[in-house]
Amino acid sequence: CGHGMCGSDAAAVNGTPTLLCKARIADWAQPERTVDAEGFRRTGSEAGEPDGADGLGVIELAPLPGFAVDRDLIADIDPMLEQIKRLKPYLIADGVLATTEDGKVDVLEYLQSPEQLAKYETLTTCIVCGACEGACPVYAGGEAFVGPAALINQARFIDDSRDEATRERLEAIDTADGIQACQSVRACSRECPVGIDVGEQIWQLIAQVKEREA
After folding, report:
1. Contact predicate 17/135, CB 8 Å
2. 4Fe-4S ferredoxin-type domain: from which residue to which, for each copy (predicted)?
3. Is the pLDDT of residue 17 over 90?
4. Which fold has domain 65-213?
5. Radius of gyration of the chain (CA)
6. Dist. CA 133–CA 139, nearest whole Å
7. Which helix (H) or strand (E) holds 96?
8. Burial of 115 (0-12, 13-18, 19+ CB in 10 A)
9. Does 100 or 82 have the greater pLDDT score?
């Protein structure tokens, strides 16, 4: 496919979470590491492999780290989806302003300026692939940390001028397994296939929570 739009093919290539549909062999092939009689690892010409672009390469595929494995390369991402669902991943707008007198939805009430849209537009590109969760050393299944994907989802609505539940959302993530569990390693930012700076966004959430508490 090569589009990287659905996020359903996230896996680990040479230990790095990524989307298989966008992974190119030339980018990931690595010289096979061999161990000599003395126990030292050798690669390339030292291991008797040819040099240059035509050299031998090894690609190791594995299921997405941090999740239970269903089979083969299929990881069980249901815990991640449940955590996102628990935090209400939808717009909570003022019901009075959002409807007309006869009870119909008035979409014009949801208008916002380009500046307001710019605050969260990048976050709407998240495809919930789980690459950030697989890269996070704290997530590890989600029992002690809701994970960067759930936090990014909440940031998308917290920064949305139309949403009326900012206080409730900040309270929901200000928990021991929420932003308090984040150790700011920022490994989540390096692997995002759509280019979201996940670590920076989480840091901004932390700043918003502290500002609310001040």
Report:
1. yes
2. 116-140
3. yes
4. Fumarate Reductase Iron-sulfur Protein; Chain B, domain 2 (1.10.1060)
5. 22
6. 6
7. none
8. exposed
9. 82
Categorise residue 197: left if φ over 0, alpha if ψ from -120 to 50, beta otherwise: beta
Measured over the CA atoms of residue 124, residue 156, residue 68 and residue 17, the dihedral's sign is: positive
The residues, any chain, with a CB within 8 Å of residue 107's CB and separated by 6 or more, are: none
DSSP structural state of residue 19: E
How many other CB atoms sit within 10 Å of the CB of residue 148? 30
Per-residue pLDDT, 50: 47
- C-beta separation of 112 from 91 below 8 A: no
Q: SS3 for 118? A: helix
pLDDT category, 186, cuts 50, 70, 90?
very high
Structural contact between residues 143 and 173, judged by C-beta atoms closer than 8 angstroms = no
* Six-digit token string for 169: 């959302």
Question: Is 80 exceeded by the pLDDT of residue 34?
Answer: no
Cα–Cα distance between 209 and 204 in angstroms, integer?
A: 9
What single-letter amino acid sits at 93? A
Per-residue pLDDT reduced to its tens digit, 125-161: 999 999 999 999 999 766 789 999 999 999 999 999 9
Residue with tokens 């492999």: 49
Burial of residue 74 (CB within 10 Å: 0-12, 13-18, 19+) is middle
Classify residue 181 as exposed, middle or buried by CB count within 10 Å of its CB (0-12, 13-18, 19+): middle
In the chain, domain spans: 1-62, 65-213
Tokens 């936090």, located at residue: 151
